[in-house]
């Protein structure tokens, strides 16, 4: 508009607004090229047995190293990728890279038991996620039971179509976890129908849990629910020993958080966890 109507018309727009729009278009254009320009990378955050500290797996977390923007965190670009129809390509890149990495570690003598990968709602809406996962498992030779996919609670709830896709994924032999559990609006009857093996207790309930009796009550309730449904529990975002102690006492099985390890680039995972 500004172009066709000359420079003077630009003053009709609030400057902050047009700058935001311009930045957004720029971000979108850069993001679309991030895969071909090899700018995406994965960090891996260990998941441990909360009693013994033994390494059980790791969650793959994507970062974008953009020459123009620097390191961009997923909260900033995952929603954009979802908006512009780029999330399936991005998700496929993450899955392939993570599975390859685990096989590479296998060959170097470092056996990471499981790898968790986040799945976006948008990826579940297009049903070809099942064949994508199948192909990547074939291509990398990773056995299905070593792959876990995380879907957020709000994504999976009360959606029969999503339920079918999850059943298809589960039929491949992979494991499924509900991420950010406690922040969505679970129908308990629907939850019991999901083909899942694990609940990830959201970080917002873990942070400062021992100083907040309502958080304590919620965490207890989630663990009781998981036990009743025969599901494993993992607490995300554990930062202090007192949080870990509380979760241990309450019978939570697994832990992930800065107390144990930050998300690390692959070489640092090896340095930190090989021979532990
Ligand atoms: P999430 O799946 O719930 O991942 C956990 C987030 O919590 C990660 O942030 C992790 O770095 C952070 N975290 C872990 N432990 C602690 C802790 O002790 N304290 C604090 N303060 N934070 C902790 P990150 O890597 O920035 O990722 C944010 C979100 O972006 C993820 O939340 C996930 O929803 C999304 N995401 C990341 N990678 C992918 C991906 O490959 N695909 C999709 N669809 N989403 C992704
Ligand atoms: Mg996750
Ligand atoms: Mg989470
Ligand atoms: Mg979370």
UniProtKB/TrEMBL annotation:
Residues 24-276 form the EAL domain. Keywords: Coiled coil, Membrane, Transmembrane, Transmembrane helix. The chain holds residues 548 to 823 of 823 of the full protein. The lineage of its organism: Bacteria, Pseudomonadati, Thermodesulfobacteriota, Desulfuromonadia, Geobacterales. The keyword Lipid biosynthesis does not apply. It comes from Pelotalea chapellei. This is EAL domain-containing protein. The keyword Membrane applies.
